[in-house]
Amino acid sequence: MKRYVYIGIVAFIVIVTYPFWSAGKAKKPEPKLDTPEIQKLVEKKCVEPKEFMKREHMKLLNQWRDAALRDGTRVYVNSEGKEFTVSLQNTCMKCHSNKKKFCDECHNYAGVKPYCWDCHIAPKEEEGQI
Amino acid sequence: MKMNRRDFLKLTGTGTILGLAGLGLFERVTEEAIAAQFSKDAKALNAKRWAMIVDLRKFKTEEDYRRIINACHSVHNVPDFGNPKDEIKWLWTDTYEHSFPGQEHEFMPEWLEKKPIPLLCNHCANPPCVRVCPVKATFKSPDGITQQDYHRCIGCRFCMAACPYGARSFNWRDPRPFIKKTNNEFPTRTKGVVEKCNFCTERLAKGLKPACVEESNGALIFGDLMDPDSEVRQVLRKDFTIRRKAELGTQPSVFYIIGGSENV
Amino acid sequence: MFEKALEGSKRYWTWLIILAAISGIGTLYYLKQFQFGLGLTGLSRDVSWGLYIGQFTFLVGVAASAVMVVLPYYLHNYKVFGRITILGEFLAIPSVIMCMLFIFVDMGQPTRILNVLLHPTPRSVLFWDSVVLGGYLFLNLLVGWTVLHAEKKEIAPPKWIKPFIYLSIIWAPSIHTVTAFIYAGLPGRHFWLTAIMAARFLASAFSSGPALLIILAMIIRRYTKFDPGKEAIQALGKIVTYFMLTNVFFMCLELFTAFYSGIPGHQHPFKYLFTGLEGHGRLVPLMWTSAILAIFSLILLLNPATRKNERTLAVASAAVFISLWIEKGFGLIIGGFVPNPFEKVFEYWPTAPETIITIGVWATGFLILTILYKIATTVKQEVGESAHH
User: Fold this and answer.
1) Domain-located, residue B207
2) What values do phi and psi take at A34, rounded to 5?
3) I need a surface site. Which of A93, C154, C164, C197 has the fewest CB within 10 A?
């Protein structure tokens, strides 16, 4: 009887830790920023500082979503006082036209699947470009 | 400390629940991390309660209807499934008998029997759909528009049962393959959410009138119902108008001028 | 106590495996629906709720009907029901779970189900429905399990359980009232806009639920060593009789108002369901089956000789259950949508995948019911045996 308990405990530990040791050693991707649109910018700055965007973009996007759709405020005034139209499709993705490199690579690495693109239309990219 | 299996389970169970609750609380606290400012475009059109008047006298040919419907459906990526079961529509037409059930009678003029009536969401001031939505996915915005938040909709379709105007459509399947020409400036919808006319809220924000109004050659009049000087109010003062099923207390914001013999 | 469910006859395990297999097939089809969307069902823009929501509505009634055995036993000390109270409570549990599953399979965005809690909206009846259903599940689990556990140990149930029992008695009608309010508060749906909707719901619940309980009690007596008692079954028979009579009476009230007032909108759904409208009449045979079964069951139930005869009582109970399943689990929902708000007829009929998913949910419910009843009957039987020694 005791043997089964031990087997059970071992099986439990193996299953629970599976995602950690099975993931392997994939290299952490860096979001790629050199799109033609970004190259054209005089001041290569996003709506907020890069570090902030890296860490908080999901929260910012949620704020943008509610501001535009629920509050009807479609202009974002950033920490420097600069104004942007609140739109994933028409603001964010106009610069970051490389969704596969800019969004997908990191999201795949982190194993997250945001539902943005179920509705929002991704910029046109050449096939096989990843 | 000696513990039997029952107590152990009780203890671990309570611990798990408390832990989950704590985690939820933590998530909520960290949700708002950015002290950002949002404002409106200076060009934006504003109103206390947007309203529309459909002047049937000015709809003469089939083309007059086709133009406004196309304008709406193409700018909003409304799919065309080609069958009534999956159908999605924001702006469409039906006969007088079906648009104003109970108002028809057997001695009606022939032109009225046949005349298509443009139909859309009434953006009611007292909307049953908003009342019943369990997640506030459909809500009233301060300018009187009945909005639909596709991010939040759970697809329960209570709003479709509640709407007395059949204004709401559900995405029974992925709509994307059925959109003839995609407008890349506007999102599509995903399967499993309810959608409807939004009075072109995205255009009003940029200072543009609704797409259908722009294409209607004056047959659709749009403006602020709460502004006594607005065009809609001027027309309402002058002409006799009716609303669909106003007896239900929904207070529709879409008015109809049926007109008389000038329609012949 | 759960260990009682882990040992059983070959027949018990075969039955469980059959139910699990049906439930598994239902799950497979649900995954297909999850992937494709609700377009896999027969639902449409015009008839946007159908079989799933019908089953939900019907089963809320079955769940609520537990009060019909709990109330006489605990409030009136009606000892005869002592043996079947647990059967009522343990019937309520899988019924509520099935209700929740039917709501879930009907959702367009099931992964967003927690939005109901993240954005609680008290003005929505659905919000209250989730509150009362969750609460009712909890109450029945707590009361049923605690009382049975005490019985197993052959001690009196703990005192603290009493308030929960009384709460569950008030709670039962509330779940079905709230469910009726989902329909009865909508403008422009003539068929549902009726003040006696909640009363009709309760009448049909308190007849269909006990009718099922009669059949279940007879099955238990046949296949287990536990006997719920002839007297208890007879008392249930009387409950079914009175409430079925009330139910048919309420239906006649609806017909009177619709047809004597002469308001076309109120007549159209009835015409569509019972005679067909504008050449469409897909539900006509079903609705007449329901009506004829209702009358047939009342003939058997009102006649003391056929009510007291267990064989004819069983037939009457089955007739009540099927009649109300058609009326509430199907006709009530479709009648609200046909004709549509444009007074046009667009018909609905469930598709094969939709039907399979529905059967799958029922199988899941019966799986849970079997396990719970196995536990209850084994405990009752063991206690009964030790009492004889």
Assistant:
1) yes
2) -90, 75
3) C154
